[in-house]
Amino acid sequence: MHIPDGFLSTPVWASLDAAAAPAVGYVVRVAQRGFDDSKVPLLGVMGAFVFAAQMINFPVGIGTSGHLVGGALLACTLGPAAACVVMSAILAIQALVFQDGGILALGANVINMAILGVLAGYLPYHLWGRSRGRCAAIFAGGALSVAVSALMALAELLISGVRMPAAVLEVSLGLFLVSALIEGAITMTVMGALEAIQPNFVRQPAAGGRYALVAAGLAAVLLAAGGVVFASTAPDGIEQLARQTGISARARTLISTPFKDYEASWLGAGWPAQAGAGLVGLALVGGVCVLIGRKR
Amino acid sequence: MHHVTLDQWSRGASALHRRDPRVKIVSVLVFLVVLATAHRELAWLGAALFTVLLVAAWRARLPLAGALARAGVVLPFTAVFALVSCLAGDPARGAALAMKSYLSALAVLLLVSTTPLPLLLRGFEMTGAPRFLLMVAQFLYRYLFVISEEAQHMRKAALARGATMGGLAGSRARFRAAAGALAVLFARSYARAGEIHWAMLARGFPGYFRPLIDLHFHRGDVMFLVLGVLTPVTLRILIERLA
After folding, report:
1. Among A48, A259, B18, B155, who pairs with A277 as Cys (CB 3.0-4.6 Å)?
2. The model scores a pTM over 0.90
3. What CATH code is carried by the domain that includes residue A93?
4. Binary contact (B200, A201; C-beta < 8 A)
5. Number of separate domains in chain A
6. Residues B141-181: pLDDT tens digits?
């Protein structure tokens, strides 16, 4: 589910890049908290492990095999922030070295898989990891992480105006469900095997509610589910929906910003104006990132 | 293996290889944005940008056929969506998807195959990417080969002991066996990371990678930057004006 460049419309990839940059800055900062050097090789090698884990096939039916995706497993062993960092590094290497996923779409892929996917995968474990339903929580985490990533990707494609007949949509939703269940089963079995080898590998979820984490995880799940429902009602992309409901006409009079329609109106019309607005937006995001990433 | 070939290509000595990674990154980003935001005259624009990439690949003395084939790894994924678009009665969008994703992949491939990855990641530090993340990515790339080889050994050993994917009998047991293998791989990777850390401490690791060469802008880099930024932008303006 790595989205290549050229699939997402400019507002979609640009806003997701803008969202991904501070999100990655934040998880890096949390992962570095109580920083000791040993984390750098650990996270790097565990990233390589997730790559290599794809070579080990799991029989999932007659003649077919699945493999680990890894977001939930990493979150339960390294902690959610470190898992987000590892998954982001994996996506960056995949985009650069393996041409798996685009560079402009990297923000979208990072949000889908490294941030929301990992958070959604950790949520059940965080909530029920200490109770009797621990195994079910791990299973649900694995399944949720894949389901959320896939649904987010699907919603982004639909919003970008990639057309999909209803039949194709149903088939792909079915495939997502199957691969989510497979990931849940793999994550649960591997976690069991890990605990048998060395119980220390598996992190116990922190006692007490970390409300921010729960809220972020819940938001991830709701966003993915809501995104698909919303996007699938807009077969020609979001603009069509806006036109039908008349939102666009009202929104334009309501919100008259200097960058409406992603154009800097004072630069004239056409794509140089769009590019200008994009650059200003980029500078703003850059400023936010510098603020977040500043050494304490 | 795919990345081994890329690694060999990236250690060439052409004029393109010698350019500062930062100017190459900026040029590729401009190229990608120009391509991604285009909506008109896509056939002409695609042809023009493809020619630019071909010239760059030729100047970098990369094997042309190999590079074109390698960028084709995006095509299976793209083909599915292009086909779906055609079925939905919008073949133009399908063609645009295929063209844009292929050219973008080719541009990134050119960047990666003319810049060794450690240098490239140092270049990305300039864009404000967190250093911690880049260090993790660099370790990931370094140990990708090592851990993958370990996984391959384990797989070969399992096959030698008669592990198969086919048949329905004992499916549950085989699933558990695969999970066990993965857990062992996890434990080995974890232990290896600890050993790497000790080795780093023994060599006086200061908390960041010390670069052996400093990056400097030369006149060629500035010229390349101007050329790399202006070419796609000018081409697009010309094509959209003339059409």
Report:
1. A259
2. no
3. 1.10.1760.20
4. no
5. 1
6. 989 888 999 998 988 888 888 776 665 556 788 888 888 98
